[in-house]
Amino acid sequence: MKLIRFGEAGAERPGVIINENRYDVSEYIKEYDEEFFGGDGIEGLKEWVSRNHDRLKPVSDDVRLGPPMARPSKLICIGLNYVDHAKETGATPPQELEPLVARHGRPMFQGTGMAMYNEQEPQRALRIFEASAAAQRRGNGLYVQIPCQPLSFDFTMANAYPFYSHAAFDPIKAYSPAQLAAVFRDPSWRAQFRDNLSHPRPGMIFQGNWDRVMVAVTHQPAHARYVNRQVAEIAASEGRDPLDVVLDMSLDEDLQTAFLGRFLNVGDDGVAKLLKHEAGVVALSDAGAHLIYMCDAGFGLHFLAHWVRARGDFDLVEGVRRLTSHPADLYGIADRGRIAVGAHADLMLFDPQAVGVTPAERVADLPGGGRRTIRRPTGVHGVFCNGIRTFDGRDYVRHAKGPGAVLDRFTTSRGRHLAPAAS
After folding, report:
1. What is this structure's pTM?
2. Is the pLDDT of residue 284 over 80?
3. How far apart are CA 358 and CA 28, in angstroms?
């Protein structure tokens, strides 16, 4: 079942597509809006359609289809997947997205590798930020989500996608692990890949910079000493070639050794320009995904430790604002991000001289003894949600019922795009 809205512009009604046939469901639901999606609307609709399928009113294929959701409060575009489309059309992403923002009157937030700092093309991301700022000056809320840490790529040699742009991988991308193992043992293939790495093309993710690749997870006790160490450092300490380190370790572990590559958003001076840019919003981490291999959570603590205290790119007041009221205003999260009478008491008590986050470590606390990667806070003395302490500086505080609530009501986004004349 697919959801549709059909009819004249401004007078659309809700419908569904079942087995390529269109049906009117306005008898059950008046609109596909945030209230519908925020509750159990979809499940209720499924049940109603199942009970009333025989008497559903058909909708002709000639009838216009409109936007599938009515009056969304915001649009968020995340991912790398529109890069190729941008290249095909010859348009940069901001040029594609601004008409959507103007048409719907809602801000849009881009999260894309194209807008992360890349030392090979240092101006590419800045052009996207500048184009987004120009859209804001025209009254269109186009923003860029920018991480304050390097972007992590987790991979194994069974799926070594960061290396796929090199010619040595062209014929073997679809190989099985057994086939790959035979290739990786071949000295002539290793020589070919080394030659590729000595002549990288601009735009390739991996440029042979083994100092950006870290061993994340190993499976043999003899290899445990390599965890959280850079491949280049391991190779130098053992007098070996970095590629041999990666391939030999992987072959010993049936290609299950996990590596972390940090190839984008690396280079503090370049990243700082993006973090401080008027079009940027500090955001993006793994959000708990890939938990076996990495943990980018805690980026706010890293921001305070690295960009505020260590480098001084932001003073403490502005650093806190960029992590609190600035994103809350842009995302339309009401009564949060500020200490104010009547606002939700979401607070963090920290020592500015000690706040930060520890290096990654692995703990076996998942069901069945499964392992995950965590980082721990430093210099944090308390976290409060709606005025209730949830972290006491050492551990989480247990409550019979958590003090938090699902955010399902949002206000109008407040940002620079609302006052273009003053920008």
Report:
1. 0.71
2. no
3. 53
